[in-house]
Amino acid sequence: MNEMINVALPKGRLGDKAYEILERSGYPCPAMKEDNRKLTFENPEIGVRYFLVKPSDVAVYVERGAADIGIAGKDILLEYRPDVYELLDLKMGRCRMCVAGPKDFRDDPAQTLRVATKFPNIARAYYSGLSREIELIHLNGSIELAPLVGLSDVIVDIVETGKTLYENGLAPLAEIVDISARLIANKASFKFKGDALRALCRQMERTMNL
Question: CA-CA distance, 56 to 69, in Å (whole number)?
Protein backbone atom coordinates (compact mmCIF):
# COMPACT_ATOMS: atom_id res chain seq x y z
CA MET A 1 0.00 0.00 0.00
CA ASN A 2 1.19 3.53 -0.78
CA GLU A 3 1.86 5.94 2.04
CA MET A 4 -1.42 7.73 2.67
CA ILE A 5 -1.65 11.44 1.82
CA ASN A 6 -4.31 13.23 3.86
CA VAL A 7 -5.97 16.08 1.98
CA ALA A 8 -8.26 18.69 3.56
CA LEU A 9 -10.73 20.07 1.04
CA PRO A 10 -13.02 23.04 1.68
CA LYS A 11 -16.72 22.22 1.47
CA GLY A 12 -18.54 23.77 -1.46
CA ARG A 13 -17.75 24.87 -4.99
CA LEU A 14 -14.06 25.59 -4.39
CA GLY A 15 -13.50 22.13 -2.93
CA ASP A 16 -15.34 20.55 -5.86
CA LYS A 17 -13.12 22.38 -8.35
CA ALA A 18 -9.97 21.48 -6.43
CA TYR A 19 -10.98 17.82 -6.35
CA GLU A 20 -11.52 17.86 -10.13
CA ILE A 21 -7.91 18.99 -10.58
CA LEU A 22 -6.67 16.33 -8.15
CA GLU A 23 -8.72 13.66 -9.89
CA ARG A 24 -7.34 14.62 -13.30
CA SER A 25 -3.86 14.72 -11.77
CA GLY A 26 -4.04 11.02 -10.89
CA TYR A 27 -5.51 11.14 -7.39
CA PRO A 28 -9.11 9.98 -7.86
CA CYS A 29 -11.40 8.78 -5.11
CA PRO A 30 -14.69 7.47 -6.60
CA ALA A 31 -16.46 7.63 -3.23
CA MET A 32 -16.21 11.43 -3.44
CA LYS A 33 -18.90 11.41 -6.12
CA GLU A 34 -21.36 9.22 -4.25
CA ASP A 35 -24.52 10.76 -2.84
CA ASN A 36 -23.90 10.53 0.90
CA ARG A 37 -23.13 12.62 3.97
CA LYS A 38 -19.68 11.19 4.63
CA LEU A 39 -16.87 13.57 5.53
CA THR A 40 -13.90 11.27 4.83
CA PHE A 41 -13.12 9.36 1.63
CA GLU A 42 -10.24 6.99 0.89
CA ASN A 43 -8.59 5.37 -2.09
CA PRO A 44 -6.00 3.00 -0.54
CA GLU A 45 -4.79 1.84 -3.96
CA ILE A 46 -3.22 5.19 -4.75
CA GLY A 47 -2.75 6.23 -1.11
CA VAL A 48 -5.00 9.26 -0.78
CA ARG A 49 -7.56 10.21 1.86
CA TYR A 50 -9.80 13.26 1.46
CA PHE A 51 -11.87 14.96 4.09
CA LEU A 52 -14.23 17.92 3.87
CA VAL A 53 -14.07 20.83 6.30
CA LYS A 54 -15.31 24.39 6.60
CA PRO A 55 -13.14 26.57 4.31
CA SER A 56 -11.83 28.71 7.16
CA ASP A 57 -10.75 25.57 9.05
CA VAL A 58 -8.57 24.02 6.32
CA ALA A 59 -5.43 25.83 7.45
CA VAL A 60 -5.99 24.67 11.04
CA TYR A 61 -6.16 21.02 9.99
CA VAL A 62 -3.00 21.40 7.91
CA GLU A 63 -1.02 23.41 10.45
CA ARG A 64 -1.77 20.91 13.22
CA GLY A 65 -0.93 17.89 11.05
CA ALA A 66 -4.38 16.31 10.77
CA ALA A 67 -3.97 16.92 7.04
CA ASP A 68 -0.75 16.78 5.05
CA ILE A 69 -2.01 19.25 2.48
CA GLY A 70 -5.10 21.36 1.92
CA ILE A 71 -6.73 24.01 -0.22
CA ALA A 72 -7.10 27.40 1.47
CA GLY A 73 -7.86 30.91 0.29
CA LYS A 74 -5.07 33.47 0.42
CA ASP A 75 -7.36 35.61 2.58
CA ILE A 76 -7.32 32.93 5.30
CA LEU A 77 -3.52 32.63 5.08
CA LEU A 78 -3.05 36.37 5.40
CA GLU A 79 -5.56 36.78 8.21
CA TYR A 80 -4.59 33.84 10.44
CA ARG A 81 -0.95 33.39 9.32
CA PRO A 82 -0.78 29.63 9.88
CA ASP A 83 2.68 28.06 10.06
CA VAL A 84 2.42 26.11 6.79
CA TYR A 85 4.14 25.93 3.41
CA GLU A 86 2.37 27.55 0.47
CA LEU A 87 3.10 25.28 -2.47
CA LEU A 88 0.98 26.39 -5.40
CA ASP A 89 -1.40 29.12 -6.55
CA LEU A 90 -4.38 27.20 -7.94
CA LYS A 91 -5.72 30.35 -9.67
CA MET A 92 -9.26 29.49 -8.53
CA GLY A 93 -11.71 31.45 -6.42
CA ARG A 94 -10.15 34.67 -7.61
CA CYS A 95 -11.26 37.90 -5.98
CA ARG A 96 -9.79 40.99 -4.30
CA MET A 97 -9.41 42.20 -0.76
CA CYS A 98 -10.49 45.82 -0.90
CA VAL A 99 -11.29 48.90 1.10
CA ALA A 100 -14.82 49.95 0.18
CA GLY A 101 -17.15 52.72 1.23
CA PRO A 102 -19.58 55.35 -0.03
CA LYS A 103 -18.74 56.42 -3.58
CA ASP A 104 -18.18 60.01 -2.49
CA PHE A 105 -16.14 59.14 0.62
CA ARG A 106 -13.14 61.37 1.32
CA ASP A 107 -10.78 60.33 4.10
CA ASP A 108 -9.97 62.99 6.68
CA PRO A 109 -6.50 62.23 8.08
CA ALA A 110 -7.27 64.39 11.10
CA GLN A 111 -9.93 61.91 12.23
CA THR A 112 -9.56 58.29 13.35
CA LEU A 113 -10.86 56.12 10.51
CA ARG A 114 -13.52 53.61 11.55
CA VAL A 115 -13.04 50.33 9.67
CA ALA A 116 -15.51 47.43 9.81
CA THR A 117 -14.23 44.05 8.70
CA LYS A 118 -14.16 40.27 9.07
CA PHE A 119 -10.39 40.48 8.54
CA PRO A 120 -8.92 42.60 11.36
CA ASN A 121 -5.33 41.43 10.89
CA ILE A 122 -5.34 42.21 7.16
CA ALA A 123 -6.97 45.60 7.78
CA ARG A 124 -4.58 46.44 10.60
CA ALA A 125 -1.51 45.52 8.52
CA TYR A 126 -2.74 47.52 5.52
CA TYR A 127 -3.41 50.71 7.46
CA SER A 128 -0.26 50.29 9.53
CA GLY A 129 1.67 50.37 6.27
CA LEU A 130 -0.02 53.68 5.50
CA SER A 131 0.67 55.00 9.03
CA ARG A 132 -3.08 55.60 9.31
CA GLU A 133 -4.76 55.57 12.71
CA ILE A 134 -7.90 53.41 12.68
CA GLU A 135 -10.60 52.04 14.94
CA LEU A 136 -11.31 48.40 14.04
CA ILE A 137 -14.86 47.11 14.25
CA HIS A 138 -14.91 43.32 13.95
CA LEU A 139 -18.10 42.02 12.31
CA ASN A 140 -19.05 38.55 11.09
CA GLY A 141 -21.72 39.29 8.51
CA SER A 142 -23.41 41.98 6.40
CA ILE A 143 -20.26 44.07 6.37
CA GLU A 144 -21.75 46.35 3.70
CA LEU A 145 -24.36 47.54 6.20
CA ALA A 146 -21.81 49.16 8.53
CA PRO A 147 -21.15 52.38 6.57
CA LEU A 148 -24.80 52.66 5.54
CA VAL A 149 -25.98 53.03 9.15
CA GLY A 150 -23.01 55.02 10.40
CA LEU A 151 -21.26 52.21 12.27
CA SER A 152 -18.09 52.66 10.22
CA ASP A 153 -16.58 54.97 7.63
CA VAL A 154 -15.32 52.18 5.37
CA ILE A 155 -15.10 48.39 5.24
CA VAL A 156 -12.34 45.94 4.38
CA ASP A 157 -13.77 42.88 2.68
CA ILE A 158 -13.51 40.44 -0.20
CA VAL A 159 -14.87 41.77 -3.49
CA GLU A 160 -15.71 39.44 -6.36
CA THR A 161 -17.90 41.27 -8.86
CA GLY A 162 -18.66 44.31 -6.73
CA LYS A 163 -22.38 43.93 -7.41
CA THR A 164 -23.40 43.88 -3.73
CA LEU A 165 -21.37 47.03 -3.10
CA TYR A 166 -22.88 48.96 -5.98
CA GLU A 167 -26.42 47.88 -5.12
CA ASN A 168 -25.89 49.42 -1.68
CA GLY A 169 -24.37 52.67 -2.88
CA LEU A 170 -20.82 51.61 -2.08
CA ALA A 171 -17.73 51.18 -4.26
CA PRO A 172 -14.18 49.81 -3.99
CA LEU A 173 -11.87 52.61 -2.84
CA ALA A 174 -8.53 50.78 -2.73
CA GLU A 175 -7.28 47.30 -3.54
CA ILE A 176 -5.24 45.62 -0.81
CA VAL A 177 -4.32 42.27 -2.35
CA ASP A 178 -5.44 39.72 -4.94
CA ILE A 179 -6.96 36.57 -3.47
CA SER A 180 -7.05 33.02 -4.86
CA ALA A 181 -6.97 29.42 -3.61
CA ARG A 182 -3.58 28.01 -2.59
CA LEU A 183 -2.26 24.50 -2.05
CA ILE A 184 -0.70 24.43 1.41
CA ALA A 185 1.29 21.76 3.26
CA ASN A 186 2.07 20.84 6.84
CA LYS A 187 5.77 21.47 7.48
CA ALA A 188 6.45 18.14 9.19
CA SER A 189 4.54 16.24 6.49
CA PHE A 190 6.58 18.00 3.84
CA LYS A 191 9.71 16.72 5.54
CA PHE A 192 8.61 13.10 5.97
CA LYS A 193 6.37 12.75 2.90
CA GLY A 194 8.21 15.26 0.77
CA ASP A 195 8.64 13.14 -2.35
CA ALA A 196 4.95 12.22 -2.46
CA LEU A 197 3.77 15.77 -1.80
CA ARG A 198 6.13 17.31 -4.34
CA ALA A 199 4.95 14.77 -6.93
CA LEU A 200 1.33 15.65 -6.22
CA CYS A 201 2.10 19.35 -6.52
CA ARG A 202 3.90 18.85 -9.85
CA GLN A 203 1.02 16.79 -11.21
CA MET A 204 -1.52 19.43 -10.22
CA GLU A 205 0.58 22.14 -11.86
CA ARG A 206 0.83 20.11 -15.09
CA THR A 207 -2.91 19.50 -15.07
CA MET A 208 -3.65 23.18 -14.61
CA ASN A 209 -1.39 24.07 -17.54
CA LEU A 210 -2.97 21.61 -19.97
Answer: 14
